[in-house]
Specification:
three-stranded antiparallel beta sheet; five-stranded mixed beta sheet; single chain; 12 strands; alpha+beta; elongated
């Protein structure tokens, strides 16, 4: 794969919750299970049969053999052929051949997704100031956006999402990978599987990194800054700033404001020293009960 120029910073929009605090306190990130993505077409490619039926049979057999062994693979292949005879002879009847092809392709699809679908996906964005991202992933601006520095990272397989690539995995590519051992074909299939989305998602400008499995792991990049949304409660800001008061890494904190003449967003630096110096407030009704009394004088 050719070298990829990763942006200097990548961003994670988050609602404020326990998991967000864990990401900031324990330097964690979460690689998600692709089956739980909000777009059901994401990481769910189709199988395009661009070969003859015998080649498709050979591909499925090799995939089954690797998982189940020769004897069980042959038994399953025989079962697929037998089931197709309910509709006629696949060698002479086009409709039966079409049914048999769909049946084999569906099994190939299931095996491919069982193999690749176990991986975890970390989704990041190239920009912090996308209004749609704040609305969709930043709890309608009540959350925050974590800025990661990509100058020193441990990303394993980070690359941008394509919004113009096809959704289908071709059987010919699978044959090149599974039967002929082509690394280029495998790479092309991984690209289609994990890094292709519908054009309507282009506004996300998404980058992804892959892990062996889903779950929380040590963050592969340092947090450079935290950006708080337009509606973010001041208590959330105080909590996050104070959380990092003793941290050796002096990250920056920003609040978001709209530009007066447009819909664009601007960020400005928060005075963290002022927040760090403040303490927990006492109840005002008790602190000032000798100063303010009600109309009855009690």
């Amino acid at each position: 794969m050719a070298a990829i120029n990763v942006p200097k910073h990548l961003y994670k929009y988050r609602a404020f919750n326990v998991n967000t605090l864990r990401q900031l306190d324990l330097a964690e990130v979460y690689y998600a299970d692709p089956t739980g993505f909000n777009d059901p077409l994401d990481c769910d490619p189709t199988i395009q049969v661009d070969t003859d039926l015998s080649s498709l049979e050979r591909l499925l057999y090799r995939m089954l053999e690797k998982i189940q062994g020769k004897e069980v693979a042959l038994q399953e292949m025989g079962n697929h052929r037998y089931m197709s005879t309910e509709y006629g002879d696949y060698k002479t009847d086009p409709e039966t051949a079409a049914y048999y092809t769909r049946r084999l392709a569906a099994r190939v699809d299931a095996l491919l997704k069982a193999e690749l679908g176990k991986r975890g996906v970390l989704s990041l964005a190239a920009k912090w100031d996308c209004p749609l991202m704040w609305s969709h992933y930043g709890d309608e601006h009540r959350g925050l956006c974590i800025e990661y520095d990509t100058s020193d990272t441990a990303f394993k397989d980070i690359r941008p999402v394509s919004y113009s690539a096809p959704r289908a995995v071709r059987v010919s590519e699978l044959i090149e990978w599974k039967i002929r051992g082509s690394a280029a074909a495998r790479e092309s299939i991984v690209q289609t599987f994990f890094f292709s989305k519908a054009p309507q998602w282009r506004y996300e400008r998404e980058w992804r990194d892959l892990a062996v499995s889903a779950g929380a792991v040590s963050a592969p990049a340092y947090v450079d800054a935290v950006i708080f949304g337009l509606r973010c409660d001041h208590t959330v800001i105080t909590t996050v700033v104070k959380l990092h008061a003793q941290s050796a890494q002096r990250m920056k904190f920003y609040a978001v404001r709209p530009l007066n003449s447009s819909f664009r967003l601007k960020r400005y630096v928060i005075d963290r020293e002022e927040i760090e110096a403040s303490g927990v407030r006492s109840p005002a009704v008790l602190e000032f009960r000798d100063v303010f009394v009600d109309e009855t004088g009690t």
